[in-house]
Write a structure and sequence with these properties.
With 463 residues, this protein is α+β, with helices and mostly antiparallel strands. Helices cover 33% and strands 26% of the residues. The relative contact order is 0.11. The protein binds glycyl-adenosine-5'-phosphate.
Length: 463
């Protein structure tokens, strides 16, 4: 990472902790690698990200319906999906200090890019070819073992009352979409949808990621927002292109700058896939996958038909044609969206008075707190009373925060650092003229607005 990018990353991590966006998990016990908790403002931002996705995918598309399937599923599902046999990353161990690392990451650090679909011997050859360049991130020596594939599924002992590990293990789901495929028939039989239609889901997924790095970019417990479109095989590529365009536009609407986005096409596709493109975002550590958009053919319904013994084909009532629908998938992590939105919003500004401020310029619809309400002085009951009344009214519609601590300048800085679009101050004039001072986060301009007009002002400006 370049110096500036490293500094930016450190600033994001520090601000996230200081201002209650993201905490390292189990911190008082020394932390727990690649697991993070969302703090009071982080959970608001994550909820707003999920609401924006749900609106764009479910609410605005009459042929897409929602689902919330369980994290635990029948273990056969993970055999059918190919995860038990093929969901793995190449792992090597430093022979000097026994540090274990993902080989594709070690290679990437020295400018050699391994495709994620590479076989074990191919990646080993790359490791051997670059053995003098590849250094252990812990001890700095160049002495790695051969790469071995390491399965990413997280096992659990759910329902295993004997403690016998020869019993078939259960898994915490490795991706949410399997819950969608196995409910394909249920959704079809219980709603008014017909092919082409989509099922969307937001939920936790778990992966035994080998290397914990890049903050919330790669977590072991993370949240996915996935949509699977079931389509006639003849229309699959057309639908696929359509979704590529829609998902690109979605990120622009979410406030990410186009120059910070780019397409990456997967060249070595798994045998069943027809196409796979990623939308990458320019994170502080470079362009990396934000979302994957995949044309998966009829692999998923085909495998689940085969392994469950249940016919998952679709009968078109109009044409009488029976076929196995193809799947077009869009898949993105809540956490990666969070990190992209946070990176995009982070701004350091030099002020006219020579001071500096850090401000998170979130799109207003994503901001954790929409309005902060301040009585000018905390020891003046009449100001506090009026400010509380305003809080009571506005908090019916928006996430508001009441703050009477410290001077107004300090309160502004605090709200800037959590990205609150508007701060309202109740002062002595408010008691006479029934108005408050409204300060805009981005321009820092202040204007007087009558209390009775605040609701309308916010409806107009928080869109
Ligand atoms: N169903 C397809 C699927 O799961 P993926 O490329 O493995 O495909 C899709 O994951 C998305 O899930 C990624 O683009 C990323 O946004 C998110 N994701 C995957 N692994 C993650 C991890 N360890 N931590 C955070 N997000 C992750």
């Amino acid at each position: 990472m370049e110096k500036d990018s490293e500094k930016l990353m450190q600033n994001l991590v520090a601000l996230s902790k200081r201002r209650g966006l993201i905490f390292p998990s189990s911190e008082i016990y020394g932390g727990f690698a690649a697991v993070y908790d969302y703090g009071s403002y982080g959970v608001e931002l994550a909820n707003n990200i999920k609401a924006a996705w749900w609106k764009a995918m479910v609410q605005k598309n009459e042929n897409i319906v929602g689902l919330d399937s369980s994290i635990f599923m029948h273990p056969k599902i993970w055999e059918a999906s190919g995860h038990v046999s093929g969901f793995s990353d190449p792992l090597a161990e430093c022979k000097e200090c026994h540090f274990r690392a993902r080989v594709d990451h070690l290679l990437e650090d020295v400018g050699v890019f391994a495709d994620e679909k590479m076989a074990e011997d191919e990646i080993n050859k790359l490791l051997v070819d670059n053995k003098d360049k590849v250094k252990c991130p812990k001890c700095g020596k160049s002495n790695f073992s051969e790469a071995r594939n390491f399965n990413l599924l997280v096992q659990s002992n759910l329902g295993n009352f004997t403690g016998d590990w020869n019993e078939e293990p259960t898994y915490l789901r490795g991706e949410t979409c399997q819950g969608i495929y196995v409910n394909f028939k249920n959704v079809l039989d219980s709603t008014r949808v017909k092919v082409p239609f989509g099922i969307a889901q937001i939920g936790k997924a778990f992966r035994n990621e080998i290397t914990a790095r890049q903050f919330i970019f790669r977590k072991r417990e993370f949240e996915q927002m996935e949509m699977q479109m079931f389509v006639h095989p003849d229309t699959a590529m057309e639908v696929y292109e359509d979704w590529r365009a829609k998902r690109w536009q979605y990120y622009l609407d979410l406030g990410l700058k186009e120059e910070n986005l780019k397409w990456h096409q997967h060249e070595n596709l798994v045998f069943y896939a027809k196409a796979a493109w990623d939308i990458e975002y320019k994170f502080p550590f470079g362009f990396k996958e934000l979302e994957g958009i995949h044309a998966r053919g009829d692999y998923d319904l085909g495998q689940h038909s085969k392994f469950s013994g249940k016919d998952l084909s679709y009968l078109d009532q109009k044409t009488n044609e029976r076929y196995l629908p193809n799947v077009v998938e869009t898949s993105v992590g809540v956490d990666r969206t969070f990190l992209a939105v946070l990176t995009e919003a982070y701004t350091e500004e030099k002020l006219e008075d020579g001071n500096e401020r850090v401000v998170l310029k979130f799109p207003k619809k994503l901001a954790p707190i929409k309005v902060a309400i301040f009585p000018l002085l905390k020891n003046k009951p009449e100001l506090v009373k009026k400010a509380r009344e305003i809080f009571e009214n506005l908090s019916d519609s928006w996430m508001c925060e009441f703050d009477d601590n410290g001077n107004i300048g300090k309160r502004y800085r605090r709200q800037d650092e959590i990205g609150t679009p508007y701060c309202l101050t109740v002062d002595f004039d408010s008691l006479e003229d029934e108005s408050v001072t409204v300060r805009d986060r981005d321009t820092m301009k202040q204007e007087r607005i009558e209390i009775k007009n605040l609701e309308g002002f916010l409806v107009e400006n928080l869109k």
